[in-house]
């Protein structure tokens, strides 16, 4: 159990940081928020990989890690967009 928590934090930190590097522009996110986005992406990616049977490989689970990274990129982009909308006072396009 402790090993799973530690690996989620480590993988979460890595995919969160990579997600911030991949998303274009400047994101006004704290390190803690980046870590949280990365951990959530890592856990969701692992869950989805297990559901589809992608995590049951003999070597490195590349599909699982790519999925985690893609979810981290999406999470960083969404959080950065929400923070930008909140700081400008805009709630999105007018309908």
UniProtKB/TrEMBL annotation:
Q: Where in the cell is it found?
A: Cell membrane
The membrane topology term of the UniProt record is: Multi-pass membrane protein
Highest taxon in the source lineage: Bacteria
**InterPro entries to which the protein is assigned, alphabetical:** Transgly_assoc (IPR007341)
Assign the protein's first listed, main location to one coarse class: membrane
Q: Keywords on this record?
A: Cell membrane, Membrane, Transmembrane, Transmembrane helix
The entry assigns this protein to a family as follows: Belongs to the UPF0410 family.
List residues traversing the bilayer.
Answer: 6-23, 30-50, 62-80
Q: What is this protein called?
A: GlsB/YeaQ/YmgE family stress response membrane protein
Q: Does the keyword Transmembrane apply?
A: yes
User: Among its keywords, does the record have Transmembrane?
Assistant: yes
């Amino acid at each position: 159990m402790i090993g799973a928590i530690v690996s989620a934090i480590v993988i979460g930190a890595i995919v969160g940081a990579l997600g911030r590097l991949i998303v274009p522009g400047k994101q006004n996110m704290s390190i803690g928020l980046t870590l949280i986005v990365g951990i959530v992406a890592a856990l969701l990616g692992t869950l989805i990989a297990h559901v589809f049977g992608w995590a049951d490989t003999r070597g490195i689970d590349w599909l699982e890690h790519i999925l985690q990274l893609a979810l981290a990129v999406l999470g960083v982009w969404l959080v950065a967009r929400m923070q930008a909308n909140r700081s400008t006072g805009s709630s999105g396009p007018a309908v």
